[in-house]
Amino acid sequence: MKEIINLPGPSTKLIDSPIPDINDDQVLIKVVVSGSNPKDWKVPELAVNQDSAFFQRYARVRQGVNQGDDIAGVVVKTGKNVVEFKEGDRVAAFHEMLAPGGSYAEYAVAWAHTTFHLPAEVSFE
């Protein structure tokens, strides 16, 4: 799949990545819309700024990270403990910040407890 990585600069890089795996309490979503937030470019900047209070905290993202955390799309897979969602459900969700599987990609990962159904009359946007 295609995935966008946020880098210091700020800049981005489009890369090829495997579709992410999910755990027993997560859902895999085919992304239709991804929201963007100021932290998406700020976190990589803080990660490389040695004067920042966040320099050590964000060390693992210095080489870039998929910062997309706001997802709208269609469920393609559910973990074995997930009972409230099924393949084909229209959903919106919050991706765990700074974790792999963000929404700046074709597929994203979300915890079931941060995911909700989108009614048919509500657009993905």
TrEMBL record:
Coiled coil: none annotated. This is GroES-like protein. Belongs to the zinc-containing alcohol dehydrogenase family. It comes from Aspergillus ibericus CBS 121593. GO terms for molecular function: nucleotide binding; oxidoreductase activity, acting on NAD(P)H. Keywords: Nucleotide-binding, Oxidoreductase. Residues 24-119 form the Alcohol dehydrogenase-like N-terminal domain. SUPFAM superfamilies: GroES-like.
